[in-house]
Amino acid sequence: MSDEQAAGVVIEDLHKSFGDNEVLKGISMRVDPGEVVCLIGASGSGKSTLLRCVNRLEDPDAGRITVGQFEATDPDVNLDAMRRRIGMVFQQFNLFPHLSVLENCTLTPRRVLKQSASEAEEEALRQLDQVGLKDLADRRPAQLSGGQQQRVAIARALTMKPQLMLFDEPTSALDPETVGDVLTSMRSLAEAGMTMIVVTHEMGFAREVADRVVFMDQGVVVEEGPAQEVIGDPQQPRTQDFLRRVLNPLAE
Amino acid sequence: MALSNRKRRQLSLGIQAAVFVIAVAVLTVIIDWGAVQQSFFNLEPVAPMFPGVITTGLVNTIQYTFFGFLFGLLAGTLLALMRLASFPVYRWIATAYIEFFRGIPAILVFIALGFGASLAFGLNLSTLQTAATALAIVGSAYIAETIRAGLQAVPAGQVEAARALGMPAWRAMVSIQIPQAFRIVLPPLTNEAILLTKDSSLIYVVGMAGAAAELTKMGRDGITMYQAGMTPLVVAGFCYLIITVPLSLLARRLEARGPAKASRKKKVKA
Asked: What are the sequence ranges of the domains in chain B?
């Protein structure tokens, strides 16, 4: 990461419903600048919705979120300016299929940040090099494996020089043999001091890379703390139950 | 009856062939082929129709259709964006327009424009202007629906990814959604061009000077002029095929090529 400052995130009493279904029931948490936090929990626990509220892909019903200097829940916040500071990586990669790998990485810097073509390409190739895919810059996304596509998605997000990175189950759609490369790229990003919020089912990654782990169930934070403690020695019955099923699926 | 699948397939083929042979035999007997040939395939007026049917008729048909399609595409794109607009009044207007002009026969628009434009607006429209405007009015209603469907067929994740990068909504529309929708709508738009080519014949009801005649008009004039049956109409019909068959082949090729694939996998998140 360059000279850009990592941003912290503060979430206070966040509520979100889809129709009658209350997905977030008053979530409060904070992520310090440079910290890596993994959100774990069963499907439907509200992890992804919480993540999507941070860059306002979802609009929360109540509560407050600040990201660095941005008041994310202020109705008049400059969403585009805020999102340029928040990188997001999706489960389905969401690379632009009609553009080459390089163009995926240069489009927004050129069109939105008004960088020159050479400036944008230089930075894009640097970021692609970081994830080990500089040689594939001229390919189309469809010609890449899932793991390669996801690493391009990470590089694409980083070309905007974000102060916070959001990962929404980045390895859940991948073939098992390509998961490792993506996690490695994420680990080096964490080591470079990026603030990261990662929704994941990769307990190994959470244990090794995360500073803190937050366990959510049915729209509330059940337990949070240092990764080793929450995963290695959970205190709450719901956390224990979840981890037992994830870590040892064949039991019972 | 216990027939094997192979036997059953053979029996089915045999029955189909038998029905075909009988149908051909019956048609051969009951139809007066001499009269058919005299009415529809009399070669006498064919030669004198050329080169006029090409240099005037075909050229005019292509011209009317081209401008009708061009303006229809522009208006249709605008209508599609209106149907997707956040301001509800735009949505209502676009929906009303689309439902109205898809629901009435195209010939009404030609008549209304051909005879009504001068009365209502004091406009003296040329044949090209009348035909192109009428085709654009009707075509835009269909094209709008095609484009709307194309825009909505672009996966939601594409726009989300663009917005998450910090692109404003219009930029995501221009750089991400429209280019991908374009590939999706090319085949149906080509089919729409075929339909408009055929609908351009409706200008016939308005009437036109000889130099502005398109294929259908030339066909009907040929019937009166040569007094040799319907053959000129058949010639005009084949001239339409010169336009529509290549378009149809193009549409099929575009369809086979398919839109750009978003990703290798098609797993959907629960």
From this structure: 50-250
The verdict on a CB contact (< 8 Å) between A144 and B264 is yes
Asked if A241 and A80 count as a contact pair (C-beta separation under 8 A), the reply is no
Element (H, E) at A31: strand A21-31
Q: Which runs of consecutive H residues, i.e. helices, occur in chain B?
A: 5-30, 33-40, 46-49, 52, 59-83, 88-103, 106-121, 127-153, 156-164, 169-172, 178-199, 215-226, 231-257
Full pLDDT tens readout for chain B, 270 residues: 678 999 999 999 999 999 999 999 999 999 988 888 888 888 888 888 888 889 999 999 999 999 999 999 999 999 999 999 999 999 999 999 999 999 999 999 999 998 888 788 878 889 999 999 999 999 999 999 999 999 999 999 999 999 999 999 999 999 999 999 988 999 999 999 999 999 999 999 988 888 888 999 999 999 998 888 899 999 999 999 999 999 999 988 888 876 554 443 333 333
B257 vs chain A: nearest CA distance in angstroms?
Answer: 14
Which CA distances in Å does B49 have to A10, B226, B230, B233, B257? Answer: 81, 10, 13, 11, 40
Cβ pairs bridging A and B (under 8 Å): 94
Contact B167 A111 (CB under 8 A): yes
Q: Above 0.90 for ipTM, yes or no?
A: yes
Token couple for A28: 């409060």
Distance, in Å, from the CA atom of B257 to the CA atom of B46, rounded to the nearest integer, reads 40
Q: Which fold has domain B50-250?
A: MetI-like fold (1.10.3720)
Q: What's the number of CA atoms in the CB half-sphere (13 Å) around residue A130?
A: 23
Q: Which of A82, A108, A140, A163 to mutate to test the interface with B (most CBs of B within 10 A)?
A: A108
In angstroms, the CA A73 to CA A54 distance is: 9
| CA atoms of A124 and A110, how far apart (whole Å) | 11
- pTM for the structure as a whole: 0.82
Report CB contact under 8 Å: B264, A149.
Answer: yes
Question: B261 in contact with A at a CB cutoff of 8 Å?
Answer: yes
CA distance linking residue B221 with residue B215, whole number of Å: 10
